[in-house]
Design goal:
Number of helices: 9
Number of strands: 0
Strand content: under 5%
Number of domains: 1
Distance between the termini: 35 Å
Length: about 250
């Protein structure tokens, strides 16, 4: 088990070494970067907004109905909703969700290229296939993740306001007071910084599993599943380390 893990780590580091080499043609790199930005970033905005909207509403409702008491200020629900969205959900939990959507997409796409010998064809033509295929994906996801985090936080706050406007769980005034109470801008930037690491994990680890597929279509499916599981575990472990590091 340890030998297999060390071998996988070595293969991953070698692949990343090949990936972060200067592309042969920068024009082609930026073209693929734009395509991946649309595929991995823009196409993920919808699911991020939808999930964050409902999570923001649910958090606000749960805090109001199950935790808040007469001994707590009326703005507690808004304050707690803001802190949860900023500190964990919009960075770590959202990236776990993206690992399932984006990670499986990357692994299956590159795995399909491997079994259909498209990667071999690039190597024969003298192209650095790792840099040509993987680098635009990593660059696109890492550069767009702060936008997704911002959208997630905004959608969560809108969801909380929906509980005030539609469900009348809390008054808009109390919710606004809670959202504004003791706001620390660093919490937002901490979520952005963590999401940059998580985005790199999703893109690079998923690419590794897809790039090293051996066999047929069944192995592509297995690689996609392994990529999602590995990304999720690495995100959870790195979240503990980054939270401790950035909070001190």
């Amino acid at each position: 088990m340890i030998k297999k893990g060390l071998q996988a780590l070595g293969e991953y580091l070698i692949l990343m070494g090949r990936t972060f080499q200067r592309p042969e043609r920068m024009r082609m790199f930026f073209k693929k970067y734009y395509q991946e930005l649309m595929n991995l970033g823009i196409n993920s905005v919808g699911i991020v907004l939808l999930i964050s909207l409902f999570i923001g509403a649910v958090i606000c409702i749960q805090i109001k109905l199950n935790i808040q008491s007469i001994w707590m200020p009326a703005w507690t629900s808004g304050y707690t909703t803001r802190e949860i969205m900023l500190l964990e959900f919009s960075s770590a939990i959202m990236c776990l969700i993206l690992a399932g959507k984006v990670g499986s997409n990357i692994a299956s796409e590159i795995g399909t290229m491997r079994i259909t010998q498209q990667i071999d064809a690039l190597e024969i033509m003298g192209v650095n296939s790792a840099s040509h295929i993987i680098l635009p994906k990593i660059a696109a996801l890492v550069s767009f993740i702060p936008v997704l985090v911002t959208f997630s936080v905004a959608a969560g706050i809108v969801g909380a306001y929906c509980t005030a406007w539609l469900a009348h769980i809390i008054t808009p005034t109390d919710l606004t007071l809670g959202l504004q109470h003791s706001f620390t801008p660093w919490y937002f930037w901490m979520g952005v910084i963590k999401s940059l690491f998580f985005a790199f994990i999703i893109a690079s680890v998923s690419s590794y599993y897809g790039y090293n597929v051996k066999g047929g279509s069944i192995e592509v499916g297995k690689a996609s599943t392994s990529a999602v599981v590995s990304c999720s575990v690495l995100i959870l472990f790195s979240d503990i380390f980054l939270t401790q590091l950035l909070s001190t």
